[in-house]
Amino acid sequence: MIIAEYLFQRYLEPGEKVVAVVHRHPFVLARAVLPLAALGLALPFFLWMLFPEYIFIFVIWGSITAVRIFREFMIWYHDAFLITDVSIIDVYWHGFFDRSSARLEYPMMEGVNLEIRGLRRVIFNYGTVSVQRGGGTNPLVLRDAMNPRKAERKIMSTVEEFMKNRSMRQSETLKELITEMVHHNYRENAKK
């Protein structure tokens, strides 16, 4: 969680804590990285074995591919739901210089849906998690989420804990207000 809080710090409000991070399944990363690794790392290596005098070209080729693989990893890692103690944040990276996020406060949340379609998704336990917003606006959606049932349970338990704490704070405030009113009324009646 320390690494997640450091990497996702720019999306958090002061004092907000990350409870859990829901990432996309590693298959999504593998689909993007395996072709890059085959064409950008393995192919230059074999060509270098055949033509060692062109090592400079192959090093540049491999370096560019390594940067692209790192970019794909960062996009995969940052395409996530941040479950915090007060809200859910949908973070999406399109690249190093193109990021977006959407925040949904727990009182505005209506529910969580999950969808697991297809044999591969059932076997490897990944699917789509949607968090419904109040007012009928577009839901927060994370496609190909790892372990969507666990994510749903974590979201719901965090929301339940938030609402319980909020209710306790409100009841304490109400109790203090009523106590203050009774004391004030008692003092006013005692003067008469």
Question: How do the strands and helices of this protein lay out in sequence?
Answer:
Elements (H helix, E strand, L loop, with lengths): L1 H6 L10 E6 L2 H25 L4 H24 L1 E5 L2 E9 L2 E8 L3 E7 L3 H6 L1 E8 L6 E7 L1 H44 L1
Antiparallel strand pairs: 1-2, 2-3, 3-4, 5-6, 6-7
Helix pairs in contact: 2-3
Which descriptors would you attach to this protein?
single chain, 192 residues, alpha+beta, PH-domain like, four-stranded antiparallel β-sheet, 7 strands, 55% helix
Protein architecture, described:
The chain is an alpha+beta fold and 192 residues long. The chain has one domain: Roll (PH-domain like), CATH 2.30.29. Helix content is 55%, strand content 26%. The protein contains five helices and seven strands. The strands form two sheets. The protein has a four-stranded antiparallel sheet. A three-stranded antiparallel sheet has the order 5-6-7. A hairpin with a 2-residue loop joins strand 3 and strand 4. Helix 2 packs antiparallel against helix 3. The chain is elongated. The termini are far apart. The relative contact order is 0.13. The model has no long low-confidence stretch (mean pLDDT 91).
